[in-house]
């Protein structure tokens, strides 16, 4: 079963190969969840919980458990990066998207598992969470859209990349407020997409020092290319043979 929809601002594909009694129903539940996440947590919707909090219409005790969890994760990464990753940059509204994406797609994968799926893959705008592999995942060349710079193989887990090639210099260092240009791309493999996606973005925000920081986190393997076109790869990064 394969299904693709555009939700949360990017294409999401769901593939279920085995296990689920009704894979179409499981996929429908996944996309319903992601649409709900977009309504509730998008900073681009004036009526979302995130926007209402940013305008001061909600107090901490009024927040849903899910938004409290998201903000807790944002604070964790802010502290861990000494402020390089920050969802509350001066002059900008609250924007937790860097955490919401991986967190919500990981939840979507858990919905598939709960429906009985044992072999599946969810690809959300290039970030992937999969189970029942092996699965091969290509890492796009940071300067050539028609080429890959690595192909990795995962059985269970997630892959996320932060880069400049799709949206330009959009990742800011919270310590300076300036765009990060020291890296071209940074890919993280981790047990969950919550961890992989947030770690990739947080590490990118740190610049070159973020490569070692990401590699030091439990369960994370890293592949990065800096502005000098030098490649960094941790020993356990699962390159396909």
Give a written overview of the molecule:
By secondary structure, the chain is α+β, with helices and mostly antiparallel strands. The chain has a single domain (2-233), classed as ApbE-like domains (T-fold, Roll), CATH 3.10.520.10. It is built from 6 helices and 12 strands. The protein has helices at 23-41, 49-54, 65-80, 97-114, 193-206, 209-215, and strands at residues 2-7, 10-18, 119-124, 127-131, 135-140, 148-154, 157-163, 172-173, 178-179, 183-190, 221-226, 231-233. The longest helix is centred in the N-terminal third of the chain and has 19 residues, at 23-41. The two termini are 27 Å apart.
Outline:
33% of the residues lie in helices and 28% in strands. It has 241 residues and is α+β, with helices and mostly antiparallel strands. The strands form three sheets. An eight-stranded antiparallel sheet has the order 1-2-3-4-7-10-11-12.
């Amino acid at each position: 079963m394969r299904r693709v929809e555009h939700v949360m601002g990017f294409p999401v594909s769901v593939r279920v190969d085995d296990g689920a009694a009704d894979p179409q129903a499981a996929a429908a539940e996944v996309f319903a969840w992601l649409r709900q996440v977009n309504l509730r947590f998008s900073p681009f919707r004036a009526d979302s919980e995130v926007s209402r909090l940013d305008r001061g219409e909600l107090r901490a005790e009024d927040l849903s458990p899910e938004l409290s969890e998201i903000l807790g994760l944002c604070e964790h990464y802010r502290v861990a990066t000494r402020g390089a990753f920050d969802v509350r940059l001066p002059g900008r509204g609250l924007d937790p998207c860097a955490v919401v994406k991986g967190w919500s797609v990981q939840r979507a994968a858990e919905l598939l598992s709960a429906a009985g799926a044992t072999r599946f893959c969810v690809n959300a705008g290039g970030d992937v969470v999969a189970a029942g592999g092996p699965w091969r995942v290509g890492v796009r060349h940071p300067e050539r859209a028609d080429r890959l710079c690595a192909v990795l193989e995962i059985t269970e887990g997630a892959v996320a990349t932060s880069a400049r090639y799709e949206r330009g210099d959009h990742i800011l260092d919270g310590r300076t407020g300036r765009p990060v240009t020291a890296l071209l791309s940074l890919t993280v493999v981790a047990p969950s997409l919550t961890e992989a996606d947030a770690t990739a973005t947080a590490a990118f925000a740190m610049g070159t020092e973020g490569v070692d920081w990401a590699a030091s986190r439990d369960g994370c393997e890293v592949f990065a290319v800096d502005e000098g076109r030098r490649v960094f790869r941790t020993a356990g990064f699962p390159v396909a043979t």
